[in-house]
Amino acid sequence: MATSISTSPRTWPTVPLGTTGMHITRVGFGAWAIGGGGWQFAWGDQDDNDSIAAIRHAVERGVNWIDTAAVYGLGHSEEIVARALRDIPRNERPFIFTKCGLVWDERDRTAPARRVGNPASLRRELEASLRRLQVETIDLYQMHWPADDGTPLEEYWGTLLTFKAEGKARAVGLSNHTADQLAAAERIGHVDSLQPPFSAIRRDSATREIPWCAAHNTGVIVYSPMQSGLLTGAFTAERAAKLSADDWRSRSPEFTGEGLKRNLALADALRPIAERHHTTVAAVAVAWTLAWPGVTGAIVGARSPSQVDGWIGAASLVLTEADLDEIARAIERTGAGRGPTRPPAKQQ
Questions:
Q1: Is 223 labeled as catalytic in the residue annotation?
Q2: Which of 72, 141, 156, 223 is catalytic?
Q3: pLDDT tens profile 194-228
Q4: Which of 227, 321, 328, 330 is geometrically suited to a Cys-Cys bond with 341, CB 3.0 to 4.6 A?
Q5: Which CATH number is 297's domain given?
Q6: Domain range spanning residue 90?
Q7: Number of domains making up the chain
């Protein structure tokens, strides 16, 4: 089904998020990095005042949704989101999306969080997120990862559907789930959204998951469209070498060795396209994900207002067929990442 595009009062295009009734800007603010340091997938230390300024700047620029999760900063990201929005009238606040299913140990904050789907545990997480976010209803509540505590998908998905029926969540979705898992959940109750990783480097979900969502009126909000900074145009090998030990990227093969060289070569190949559109490499990288049929919006992180300005142009940037051909050739030439290299060509 074709997605209609309308223009929001704040000038950025908006699109329907599946069948939820929410219309969202093509880019949303990602609150992973602002969780700060001291946990397994931290981006290093972060100043809370900078985080609040970044969120407020994104909202002022017209972004109308924020994606966070309970596990980001082990509750801290949700608290920062609440602080940033506190002085904004409720009818002017952006939608808030958050996630559950990752449970941490307060006695060892650097230990891996457990993937828990137990209904009672999910209920505790829901109440804790509502409290930290200072809201009565979460606009989109998502299961962060498939559970590995023995809870069947049918049980934890049924629990999220119960939260929706109770009015504790306006919509419910799944993150990091496969097409087969989406189909199993859909048999119980409609999956409002999927949140997969997706970028010009990590392209796997374009094969099955995104097409499944397009066929079932399930919204798709992709995360890491700039591959955690690699496709911003500002990242360098020197910067990668200086990543702190408490930044998870310092341990990723995408940020070291041959993987880093291929990824930076792809980022460089986006520069001529950015120049033609009078925009940034970051905006081109995000717009590439939005060019795929079925993708509703992209989650883009920022740790300062200036970083928001670096990608906000993607909210309205439409890449041409020639642009997409050029990017596909660059992907093949550099050998970066895996998965399909180009969205289906539009029929003239």
A1: no
A2: 72
A3: 999 999 999 999 999 999 999 999 999 999 999 88
A4: 328
A5: 3.20.20.100
A6: 25-228+281-318
A7: 1
